[in-house]
Amino acid sequence: MIKYNYLRYPGGKAKAVTLSYDDGSTSDARLAETLNRFGLKCTFNLVGSHVEREIGLTKEFIRTEILAKGHEIANHGYNHRGMDRIRPIDGIRDTLDSRLTLEKEFGIIIRGMAFPDRVVSRTRTPDIYDNVRSYLENLDIAYSRIASGDNDSFELPTDWLSWMPTAHHENPQLMEYIDEFLALDVNGQYCSRRSPRLFYLWGHAFEFDRNNNWDRLETICEKLSGREDIWYATNMEIYNYVEAYRSLIYSADGMRVYNPTLLEIFFDVDGKLYSIKSGETLRL
Length: 284
Prior knowledge:
- By secondary structure, this protein is α/β, with parallel strands linked by helices.
- The protein has nine helices and 14 strands.
- Helix content is about 35%, strand content about 20%.
- Helix 5 links the parallel strand 5 and strand 6.
- It is globular.
């Protein structure tokens, strides 16, 4: 009998929240302080040349208040150049130079990215996207966030290199989306609709300065934080966990599963929660 099998986040949770903020301006310092206070996780997408010259955030701040506090830093191009307006060879160089710079400065592996400057996506610019996607894969970029498509589907991406967020923080419907997400009982849905949900917020911290509305960030954080049914994670933590779940190996009849990954994975089979440790084989 074919069963419904759905990923569950660490601890068996069915919902996750992540944030993604671009450019690494000085305003990101206040953003980081606020997120740390509320216990939210963010991916900070940094421009390689800015980090090198310490335009915006200092390297020390990135180390102590972003990386040391459990956030992620990701690639946002070396010169923040729109990849739909430059030659592929220039896009390759801009992406690679930024990755090399960030990895050298902070001694970590950088595989995440947010497209700089302009939207590149498989729906809006399919030919350009296919070209860009091919070289991002060769550059070992695991995921790349686009900057469009606000909606309340709360779905995980079907294509990691065209990862669509839930909403920008200035979306006029944002609070409605948050309330809908928080009220959602995933496990109470009909069996074919129990897929895990993700709330993914993005923006630029300097927009809070420009619009003089840091109180909006406080409201967002107050709403989203402190929930026992939510996993708070960076973009890369979500990517790694979902890919680990997708790497589980099943027997032909689906009654045994083997976990070849290093992570403990939680999943739901017809309403029953399972967890499988690294290297374990489990009978369902």
